[in-house]
Amino acid sequence: MNGTKLHTGGVDVGTSSIKVALFRVGEGEETLLAKVHERIRRRDPKDVARRCFEHALDDAGLQESEVAYVASTGEGSMVEFRRGHFYGMTTHARGGLFLVPDAHGVLDVGALHARAIRIDDRAKVLGHRMTSQCASGSGQFIENIARYLGVTIDEVGDLSLASKNPEKPSGICAVLAETDVINMVSRGIARNDILKGIHLSMADRLIRLLRSADIQEKVVMTGGLSKDEGLRAAVIEGIAKDRRVACEVVTHEDAIYAGAIGAALWGAVRHRTLERRKAETQAQSTAASPA
Amino acid sequence: MEKGHTMRTPEQIAEQCEQIALDDHLGEVTKWREETGGHAAGHLPVYTPREVIDAAGMLPVGVVGSGEMEIIRGDAYFQSYICHLPRSVVEMGLTGRLDSLDAMIFPATCDVIRNLSGMWKLLFPEKLVHYLDVPHNHDPEVGGVFYAGELRRLAKDLSKISGVEVTDDALRTAIEKRNESRRLMRKLFDLRSDSPEKVPTSELYVLMRAGFQMPQDAHDALVKEYYEAALASSRPEFDNARVVVIGSFCEQPPIGLIRTLEKAGCYIVDDDLLLGAHFILDDLELEGDPFTTLAKSWFDHARSMPSRFVPDEVKGEYLVQLTKKRQAEGVIFAAPSFCDPALLEQPMLQDALERAGIAHTSFKYAENNGQFHPILEQAGTFTDSIKLWSEAS
């Protein structure tokens, strides 16, 4: 990264939570100074975004005026203090590459959508595939299932990993799968096995995305479900059985911040571009004005 | 401003305009008729010289279809490979939504609109139906004379309904008044280009579209009010991509689509939405024969569009120039599905943009689209590519 050091912020407004990342960028440095994550929980996302940003400023010991560029991603209109906005795919690509520098793909699994993104070594998006309106590859789906089973979303991963006899739902439709789960509960199937079955079913969809996006190398899982080790294990298990896809799926402890991280890092690029253009315009007008 | 009168915000004015603009029962027109006892003439979205309707003492009403209502009867008249606009226009007619109109003018746009004018004659024999042909020969002695004759024929037809003869003086007065309206609209377009954060296209669009259903003076007053309110507004300026949107001159996209482009990080700095409202680019002269003046405007003062044939035109040059004038960083082709004029011209326009090194993307829509996520995705990645990769080696 060229140029003098500057601070930038990224605010990722998702369907269920808001993530903020603050960076110091320049002179070859890209340092994550602060990260804040908060669930929205029926509050005004604008207020939550503002609060998270202020919290991150406190953690980083910065004033708002010291942040050169704040970029939003996700529902950008909820970030009234933004300077610019980047689309989620662009920011997850950049954030994923920051977290796993040798990644060539990103598997972003959020509350409503999942997408597989093929990237180059500059985080430029080369191709992607995304789930459509169907909810069965998304975090909201697993959250609903967890609620039926009376477990918290944080417990889902470990419970799934402890499964011995996974019970897959009969179809991939989220609505039908939820009915299936209710039947499984009444049939006395263990929670571990239900969750593992759900994870395997979701993994099938995610692997199809990876395959059709033609991602064959290291892939970093990002988004809210990147924390779900049960899901990642199911994806790895599914890939091992599928000869058509050979990627290695990894994650990172900060992978839920990938969108916010990407927004902050792209914000730095954009800030420098705008500054350079401003300087060029000033130079031109100085040259054009009479002595 | 009067003492004690509170200035409305741009959002408040836009909200009023949206209610008028999207009312497919033409409530404002019905109200005007009840209040004045006057006659109204409808015209389809692509350019109709409204001065002729004004001079005939009638209210010009733009009929732009509707994406809001369910099409029950309209689909029976058109094959599945025809655009959506004529279906909703037929539906509006057959459900009585256009009963407030005494005449319908169909400006030459494409085969579908020409056939629609024929259907209208069969469906509504009691109403005046006028197909307004346009010149393809740009020799003033040939195409000019032909078009002036067409406009005289239109004036005569309208006079029969309103009982008001279209005199030269009345037509000159109408041109002068429309010059003023166009000036106001140009000022607003320029403000949008200079400060796009102050004039979101989603607001400018409903403001323009409301004018298709309102008396000119009342609409001019709204435009002035909006201009002042927008100028005084303190909306934050975002680092968005400046784009021109092209291809939406006839069937109109749903307002949600325009908002989606804005949400994706676009500042739309020029467009051909509702082209009839801003087709004439500058003031028309007031001297001489006013029919000839209007006819000449087709050749000398009009914006390029696929339905306006121009011999020896370098296709796409106007779009390149427009993009440069508005300092736009890219062009979005947003054309209605099955719109032959827009989609046949698009490859030539894209070639011109590529020669000029201007980024572009394209998608299709129908006026009744309700799902915008794929467009958000496409427009979002397009603006990101402009902002991040346009200067990359």
Summary of the model, kept short:
The complex is a heterodimer of chains A (291) and B (393). Chain A has 291 residues and is an alpha/beta fold. Chain A has helices spanning 45-60, 88-99, 139-149, 156-161, 174-186, 191-212, 229-241, 258-288; strands spanning 6-13, 17-26, 29-39, 67-74, 84-85, 105-109, 114-119, 125-130, 218-222, 248-250.
Structural commentary:
By secondary structure, chain A is of the alpha/beta class. Chain A has 2 domains: 122 residues, ATPase, nucleotide binding domain (Nucleotidyltransferase, domain 5, 2-Layer Sandwich); 151 residues, ATPase, nucleotide binding domain (Nucleotidyltransferase, domain 5, 2-Layer Sandwich). Helices cover 43% and strands 22% of the residues of chain A. In chain A, β7 and β8 form a beta hairpin. The longest helix of chain A has 31 residues. With 393 residues, chain B is an alpha/beta fold. The relative contact order of chain B is 0.14. Chain B is globular, with a radius of gyration of 20 Å. In chain B, α6 packs across α11 and α7 runs parallel beside α9. Chain B starts with 9 loop residues before the first helix and ends with a helix. Chain B folds into 2 domains: 129 residues, Rossmann fold (3-Layer(aba) Sandwich); 155 residues, Rossmann fold (3-Layer(aba) Sandwich), CATH 3.40.50. In chain B, the strands form 2 sheets. A 4-stranded parallel beta sheet of chain B has the order 2-1-3-4. The chains are: A alpha/beta (291), B alpha/beta (393). At the A-B interface, β5, α2 and α8 of A face α14 of B.
